[in-house]
Specification:
With about 475 residues, the chain is mainly beta. The chain is built from 6 helices and 20 strands. The radius of gyration is 23 Å and the shape is globular.
């Protein structure tokens, strides 16, 4: 699944990377104090040259400026990818996929005088066929852009700021835009570095995350400049029913409020952050970092991974075939992003590291533990200030209950049946910022024990072989 980082002004693909080296832009508190914002006469003029401007289409003959003066911002971004599998998997070969995102944001103060309000809507046009489903069958999708071809609504919400410390967002929301985010992890393409594979696997329909979303309310409170508290309650299943979730909610317009509830909360603490622009404050001497601790709870019912309603293994001939049910599911997680070196306080050159770890109960979940970590080098070469290079790893552990079921299948039904254990992904990437509006990203990924070590349907009795994948992503902002 993709993690598209949507700021209120310009939605953008989160996994396209960011040149930011401090904190997550999408988690910054909304600007309320007008004195902290430079007056238009003080702001530098935006570049207008074809190779220097931030959007391919520029100001569109003054249309963007005209709409901006009335509080309206629109955007479009196309991400296209070509990936090839060169070993293992279900088959070798290449697959193309992509997504176009259209966004519209309205600043209600500029539009009609309602201070602190933002209305936001965006839609997706997803095309092609992702390589993971077609050729790999791994738990951790090679790309966060991969999804079934469709044209769908993604998010539709209204946010109201009541001060510079508190705001509320109401509407159809994708939680991967604000929760469980690692700034440095978003440099990488594999979906698990956006919305973690544990959440995507254990939650109903994969949770309210790309390309799905759920109705709900999100609260954000900043008691200090360093601390942010996020919390929300959302519908518990973004695509209820039996079958493929993306087909069950094919248009993204199911506004459900009767499928249980998902509660999520997160505390963020930022250290050594640069002062606000124009504040005149001195930059801290230490290196910036952001640390997060959170949880989610879903009150739906979840099937046991091993036992039936009588406490008998589901693989046994004596089983009634009906899994035992557990009321509710939960996870706790922690995220750390930290710059460990930079040439100077104002230099683009830096080295940042990240770690994100999640856990969940094993009796009702396929995955009970997930950790990813990595390192990102910003401006790795002279003259390439906006490029990034990175190396990351993600480990997803199959729960003991799911492994026990596999062992029982080998005992009662299919001798030699593989027992799933864990899936590990290693990714190396380089982002080449051709222009401010065009990004190229080269990819190498290696997947150990796809699916945790599941059987190969093309080779009876053997596991799916380890997979070596290479790819190229291009992102154009219009």
């Amino acid at each position: 699944m993709i993690a598209l980082a949507a700021s209120a002004a310009t939605p953008a693909y989160a996994q396209s990377g960011s040149t930011t080296t401090t904190t997550d832009n999408q988690n910054a508190a909304p600007a309320w104090n007008a004195d902290a914002i430079p007056a238009p006469s003080e702001a530098p003029a935006a570049p207008t040259g074809f190779w220097e401007r931030s959007n391919l289409l520029g100001d569109m003959g003054g249309l963007r400026t005209l709409l901006g003066d009335h509080g309206v911002t629109f955007s479009a971004q196309e991400t296209s990818e070509l990936y090839g599998n060169f070993s293992g998997g279900l088959s070798k070969g290449a697959s193309y996929n992509g997504a176009t995102q259209f966004g519209l944001s309205v600043d209600t103060d500029k539009a009609f005088g309602l201070k602190g309000g933002t209305f936001f809507v965006d839609a997706l046009q997803i095309h092609g066929h992702g390589i993971t489903a077609a050729r790999l069958n791994s738990l951790q999708a090679v790309s966060g852009v991969e999804a079934e071809a469709s044209t769908r609504l993604w998010e539709l919400w209204y946010q109201q700021a009541f001060s510079d410390k508190f705001d509320v967002k109401v509407g159809q929301q994708s939680l991967d835009q604000e929760f469980i985010i690692s700034q440095y992890a978003s440099t990488f393409a594999n979906a698990t570095f956006g919305w973690p594979v544990l959440a995507a696997t254990d939650l109903p329909a994969g949770g309210p995350a790309y390309p799905l979303s759920s109705l709900g309310v999100r609260l954000r409170f900043k008691p200090t400049d360093s601390m942010t508290i996020l919390g929300g309650i959302f519908d518990g299943n973004p695509a209820p029913g039996n079958g493929d979730p993306q087909q069950l909610n094919a248009s993204g317009t199911q506004f459900n409020l009767h499928n249980g509830a998902m509660i999520i909360g997160e505390v963020q603490y930022a250290i050594n952050q640069p002062p606000a622009s124009g504040s005149g404050a001195t930059s801290p001497a230490g290196l910036p970092g952001t640390y997060k601790l959170g949880f989610w709870y879903n009150n739906n019912r979840f099937a046991d991974q091993h036992l039936d309603t009588n406490g008998i293994s589901l693989a046994s001939s004596a089983s009634n075939g009906v899994p035992a049910e557990h009321r509710g599911n939960f996870s706790v997680y922690a995220v750390a992003d930290q710059i460990v070196w930079r040439a100077s306080a104002d230099s683009p050159q830096s080295v940042g590291v990240f770690t994100r770890v999640m856990g969940a109960p094993g009796d009702r979940n396929l995955l009970d533990f997930n950790i990813n970590a990595g390192v990102v080098v910003k401006a790795p070469f002279k003259g390439r200030d906006n490029d990034s290079a990175g190396l990351a790893l993600s480990y997803a552990n199959v729960s003991s209950s799911a492994s026990a079921l596999d062992r029982d299948i080998g005992t009662f039904k299919t001798p030699g049946y593989p027992v799933r254990s864990a899936e590990t992904v290693i990714e190396a990437t380089y982002q080449y910022q051709v222009t401010p509006w065009w990004l190229l990203q080269g990819e190498l990924q290696y997947i150990f024990h796809p699916g945790g070590g599941i059987p190969d349907p093309n080779n009876n009795g053997a596991r799916i072989g380890n997979e070596a994948v290479a790819g190229l992503r291009t992102v154009v902002t219009f």
